[in-house]
Structure formats: structure tokens, C-alpha cells
Please model this.
Amino acid sequence: MFQYTFKIYYEDTDSGGVVYYANYLKFIERARTEMINELGFTLTTLLNDYDRLFLVKKIECDYIESCKLEDSLNVQSKVLVLKNASIVIEQNLLKQNKIIFRSKILMVCVNSQGIPSKIPSELHSLMKNVNG
Model:
């Protein structure tokens, strides 16, 4: 399981100091990017060296509890299904070790023309071990 920890800033909140709902999607996006970075790749490298991009095809999410200015949060990302050209990731957002947002994302790997393409083999192998 990959973990990404961060703090809520003023820019993340609405006028009441509560995190704007769409920002939860940004938080889990950042965590996925950091997971790929920790595996030794960057999104730029995937595009320039492998002609590959990851696109979100489907997302299911549940908003359980809100978070507020200066809360410290942790995103836990777990690979549920890894196929040749797609990946399903469960991402939970935790505040004080309690799940406050739950999501499941289906991502597809495509080339720069938008055609589904295999995940680069080196990255695919590393993704198998995200949970181990």
C-alpha cells in the first residue's frame, strides 16, 4: 500500500473553512502521481519515453466526513486489479486514522493518440508490488 500525507491549506477550502468537495479528487490524483514517482517514473517520462498516459475511465467515491483547514490527511492507495492496459486502485483518505473519503478508480493506459496500450513492463512489474 502506498501512502501520501499532506495538510489542508486555505486554498483547498470554501468560505466556511471546509474542503470543497471536488478537491478530494485532486488529493487522490496527487497521491497516484506520487505513487508513480516513488516507483521511479514520472508522468513526463511515461509520455516522452514510452508514449503512454493514464486516463481515469471510471471513479466511484463516497464522502463520509468533511475535512477542514489545517487538517493533516493521509491517502492510502492500493492496487486492486492490474491488467495489461488498465489498473483499478482503491484510494482512501484518512483523518486521524479514520476513513473520511473512499474511492475506487479505473484507469486505462493509452498512447498519445488515445488508443489503449500496454502499461510499460517495468512499471507494470513494480505496480504488482505496491501492496507488498
Q: What stands out?
A: The first strand starts at residue 2 and ends at 7. The chain has a mean pLDDT of 95. Residues 10 and 105 are 27 Å apart (CA to CA). The radius of gyration is 15 Å.
